[in-house]
Design goal:
Length: about 150
């Protein structure tokens, strides 16, 4: 099994990481800020886009993988459209963007379907994505409207 491990230290790296976590799903209750470590952790079930044949809409089966995404040097977290009182709600991640502040600081924005947004104020970009051993087949391939 090919386990994906990525590190993002700048905006270009973050764009690559964003492409790999597009359409990942996670529960609201699993989002964790570790204040002392300045770390925000997101366990997610990502769609394995790297397994898809580029430019082709395969009929399946497709694959999802349990992965851990975390951001370090996080100063604060703000959310819009996410109800922390509903820990079983599922979020679908669409993209990750960086809004520069006073270099190298800025805000990492995690954009979810339905208009939900997590904003992480960071000292700098420092993110890691790592697959775990868990993987499973899924008949569904995420689709995006044009």
């Amino acid at each position: 099994m090919d386990l994906l491990k990525l590190v993002a230290l700048d905006e270009e790296d973050l764009q690559i990481l964003s492409a790999h976590v597009q359409d990942a799903v996670m529960k609201v209750g699993d989002l964790t800020l570790l204040k002392r470590e300045k770390r925000f952790v997101l366990p997610l079930r990502r769609f394995a886009w790297e397994k898809e044949k580029r430019g082709l809409f395969r009929k399946g089966p497709h694959e999802r993988r349990l992965s851990m995404l975390h951001f370090d040097r996080v100063l604060s977290v703000h959310s819009t459209g996410i109800d922390r009182q509903k820990p079983e709600d599922v979020l679908s991640l669409l993209a990750i963007h960086f809004v520069p502040g006073e270099a190298p600081a800025g805000t990492v924005k995690l954009i979810f379907s339905g208009g939900a947004v997590l904003s992480l104020d960071v000292e700098c970009i420092e993110a890691r994505l790592a697959d775990t051993e868990a993987a499973w087949q899924t008949p569904a391939r995420p689709r995006h409207g044009v």
